[in-house]
Design the sequence.
């Protein structure tokens, strides 16, 4: 890894493409002045956008391609049509070839994961990759995975995810020994499905040095921040994540309506508007944007497809952190210390 | 069913036992003056509590038992020790024997479900029971099931739940043809696990007259109230429910902290306090308390173990509604109209 972190960007990905990616990159570079970018996409569109951003001066190399992956392409179709040629593939390939330290795309999640697996390959010792996100909690943030890479799981996969999630938590939260919980329907030993119960047994027995296995956690523990890492299967994790997003929006709607119903409430809103502003910022999903693909031979970050420049910049920040603190080596070191039962 | 609804109460269940159950019953009776109760529990405790509630005058028959199920008893242990004798069992048995129209307990969920299955039996055509709850949405409420009765599922069970959930929605929301969604990680046809995909195919093909199959819904659709009924497997449903509860608490904590940080915010809070009060009431989980056991030969409602009298009263209200509108017959009628592929 170079001292100066270089991020490859799928400049055509997401609902808004270059009009979000370029200002997002500018915003992120303001916070990390040494950072450089490889931008893959349509030169004719990208060149003027980059030129208009003084914060990107001398930091961007544009690699021309007009082939991009549509948000509703099926993964298999995207791979067939986009392999080698598309902005998404080339951004990933730049990581594989050592030209970039991490790739960021706001494109179609399924296609991005399929291409990442083919192009980068999964790490030795890892059965299936996972997507991790930073979940805002009352204590700060937790790493939660898998939020949708794989449907269905077994105990070994849950243990692998515990190891990878802990590696990410060590980096992001700068902790020596993060706590890890397994998401379940109760905290008692007999609760849950076979995979969760068996994973709990394995994690208790292994007593790995680099993280502390906490036990089962429940849905309420996510917002509470009970553990630094929460591990679950991808179907459940995806639904939990979107349920929390939906609940936050629902409460925001209640709040808006309550604050505009009476004159007294409107006066109250006027005085408390800075507090509301702070709350809105705290609840802003863009702040925690970015899904980290774990278990691949390279760093790939998925930005939410509908994010604005601020959200895309948060995904670049995350890519920068992962690359600078050498996520890959941290995961490899931790896997090396994991008994063979898992890495077999 | 008698004209006057009679509810049997496990008066010893829950974290607070009779001190919540008795005032909860009084509160509910204020709203449904014709209602009567069979209360199962320790006479020495119950008699003075009931006598102290004028709203319960002439409405309560106490059935003495000193055996109760602890909140942390394993279901198998609870059945062994409490079968026939405990307040929980007897409350359920009163429904089986036709002495009560519905049973309510705030006791241990696993024990209540195990006893209900043994005592009442599952309905013909139903593989496994489910627990349904009323989920608050921006549009009102939705029926969501299963929130934790069964871990793991198959397509047939999901279809059964769609039918039972729709029956409940017809009653609670007074709708002729409620909409039903299957909870999934995306709305596209190829998304999800095999059970969900197969259930979607079955529901599309069946075109049942008494509800409209909407398609897949995501976690964000829960708070949005996209469909009247949302069907999912019990592990995921339980985690989604608790994640939403946790998120609501988290945002309430943010809000409290934001409103007390500056003088201006405090002044704003003062003026808007009625609006905050309305919001608090809207977010109050007690309002939507009560899990309905569906798929049994009788109505059993689970109240949250830590609820106060207000929450317990909401569970009784739900039991009253289910009994008065003959939930059992509505489910049976709808199952009769369901093709044999499912009810086989």
Sequence:
């Amino acid at each position: 890894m170079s001292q100066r972190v270089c991020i490859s960007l799928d400049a055509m990905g997401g609902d808004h493409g270059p009009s979000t990616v370029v200002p997002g990159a500018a915003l992120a570079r303001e916070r990390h002045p040494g950072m450089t970018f490889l931008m893959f996409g349509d030169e004719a569109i990208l060149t003027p956008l980059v030129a208009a951003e003084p914060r990107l001066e001398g930091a961007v190399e544009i690699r021309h391609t007009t082939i991009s992956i549509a948000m509703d392409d099926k993964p298999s179709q995207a791979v067939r049509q986009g392999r080698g040629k598309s902005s998404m593939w080339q951004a990933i390939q730049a990581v594989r070839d050592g030209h970039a330290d991490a790739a960021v795309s706001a494109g179609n999640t399924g296609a991005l994961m399929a291409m990442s697996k083919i192009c980068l390959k999964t790490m030795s010792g890892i059965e299936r990759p996972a997507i991790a996100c930073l979940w805002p909690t009352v204590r700060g943030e937790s790493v939660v995975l898998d939020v949708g890479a794989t449907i269905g799981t077994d105990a070994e996969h849950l243990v692998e995810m515990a190891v990878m999630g802990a590696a990410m938590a060590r980096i992001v939260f700068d902790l020596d020994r993060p706590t890890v919980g397994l998401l379940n329907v109760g905290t008692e030993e007999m609760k849950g499905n076979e995979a969760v119960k068996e994973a709990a047994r394995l994690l208790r027995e292994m007593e790995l040095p680099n993280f502390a296995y906490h036990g089962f956690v429940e849905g309420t523990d996510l917002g509470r921040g009970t553990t630094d890492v929460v591990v679950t299967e991808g179907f459940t994790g995806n639904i939990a994540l979107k349920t929390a997003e939906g609940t936050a929006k629902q409460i925001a709607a209640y709040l808006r309506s309550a604050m505009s119903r009476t004159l007294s409430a409107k006066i109250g809103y006027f005085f408390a508007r800075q507090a509301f502003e702070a709350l809105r910022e705290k609840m802003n999903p863009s702040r925690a944007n970015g899904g980290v693909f774990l278990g691949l031979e390279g760093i790939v970050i998925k930005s939410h497809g509908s994010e604005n420049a601020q959200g895309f910049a948060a995904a670049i920040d995350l890519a920068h952190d992962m690359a600078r603190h050498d996520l890959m080596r941290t995961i490899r070191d931790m896997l090396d210390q994991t008994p063979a039962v898992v890495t077999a």
In short: Residues 234-259 of chain A form the longest helix (26 residues). Chain A has two domains: 1-124+295-325, 127-293. Chain A touches chain B through 62 residues (CB under 8 Å).
